[in-house]
Design brief:
Helices cover about 45% and strands about 15% of the residues. With about 80 residues, it is of the alpha+beta class. The termini are far apart.
Protein backbone atom coordinates (compact mmCIF):
# COMPACT_ATOMS: atom_id res chain seq x y z
CA UNK A 1 0.00 0.00 0.00
CA UNK A 2 1.28 3.46 -0.88
CA UNK A 3 2.30 5.88 1.86
CA UNK A 4 1.27 9.03 -0.03
CA UNK A 5 -1.69 9.74 -2.30
CA UNK A 6 -2.75 12.37 -4.78
CA UNK A 7 -6.26 13.76 -4.30
CA UNK A 8 -7.57 11.33 -6.92
CA UNK A 9 -5.86 8.36 -5.26
CA UNK A 10 -7.15 9.48 -1.84
CA UNK A 11 -10.70 9.58 -3.22
CA UNK A 12 -10.28 5.98 -4.40
CA UNK A 13 -8.90 4.96 -0.98
CA UNK A 14 -11.53 6.84 1.06
CA UNK A 15 -15.31 6.73 0.67
CA UNK A 16 -15.35 10.38 -0.48
CA UNK A 17 -15.29 12.11 -3.84
CA UNK A 18 -12.38 14.21 -5.09
CA UNK A 19 -14.50 17.34 -4.73
CA UNK A 20 -15.26 16.65 -1.06
CA UNK A 21 -11.57 15.99 -0.33
CA UNK A 22 -10.68 19.26 -2.08
CA UNK A 23 -13.26 21.12 0.04
CA UNK A 24 -11.82 19.63 3.23
CA UNK A 25 -8.25 20.68 2.43
CA UNK A 26 -7.54 23.59 4.73
CA UNK A 27 -10.67 22.91 6.81
CA UNK A 28 -10.41 19.50 8.46
CA UNK A 29 -7.47 18.24 6.37
CA UNK A 30 -4.58 20.36 7.57
CA UNK A 31 -1.33 21.18 5.83
CA UNK A 32 1.62 19.66 7.65
CA UNK A 33 -0.60 17.08 9.33
CA UNK A 34 -2.70 15.43 6.61
CA UNK A 35 -1.14 16.81 3.48
CA UNK A 36 1.92 18.52 2.09
CA UNK A 37 2.55 20.60 -0.99
CA UNK A 38 5.41 19.29 -3.12
CA UNK A 39 6.31 20.80 -6.50
CA UNK A 40 2.92 22.51 -6.67
CA UNK A 41 0.97 19.31 -5.96
CA UNK A 42 -0.97 18.27 -2.89
CA UNK A 43 0.23 14.99 -1.39
CA UNK A 44 -1.91 13.33 1.29
CA UNK A 45 -0.40 10.93 3.82
CA UNK A 46 -2.24 7.59 4.17
CA UNK A 47 -1.72 7.19 7.93
CA UNK A 48 -2.93 10.74 8.58
CA UNK A 49 -6.01 10.06 6.40
CA UNK A 50 -6.68 6.90 8.42
CA UNK A 51 -6.49 8.91 11.65
CA UNK A 52 -8.74 11.59 10.16
CA UNK A 53 -11.33 8.96 9.20
CA UNK A 54 -11.20 7.34 12.64
CA UNK A 55 -11.40 10.69 14.43
CA UNK A 56 -8.00 10.22 16.07
CA UNK A 57 -6.92 13.71 15.02
CA UNK A 58 -9.99 15.18 16.66
CA UNK A 59 -8.10 16.71 19.60
CA UNK A 60 -6.79 19.53 17.39
CA UNK A 61 -10.19 20.08 15.84
CA UNK A 62 -11.98 20.03 19.22
CA UNK A 63 -9.61 22.73 20.49
CA UNK A 64 -10.56 24.80 17.45
CA UNK A 65 -14.29 24.19 18.04
CA UNK A 66 -14.51 22.11 14.88
CA UNK A 67 -16.46 18.87 14.49
CA UNK A 68 -15.65 16.85 11.37
CA UNK A 69 -18.87 14.83 11.65
CA UNK A 70 -20.97 17.98 11.82
CA UNK A 71 -19.12 19.48 8.87
CA UNK A 72 -19.40 16.36 6.71
CA UNK A 73 -23.08 15.98 7.50
CA UNK A 74 -23.65 19.12 5.41
CA UNK A 75 -22.63 17.24 2.28
CA UNK A 76 -24.51 14.48 0.54
CA UNK A 77 -22.36 12.18 -1.53
CA UNK A 78 -23.72 11.24 -4.92
CA UNK A 79 -22.92 7.66 -5.85
Amino acid sequence: MKKYYSIKQASEYLPFSESLIRREIGKSLLEGIHFFKKFGKIVLEREALDDWMEGKDGEYNRKQGYSLDEHLSQFQEVS
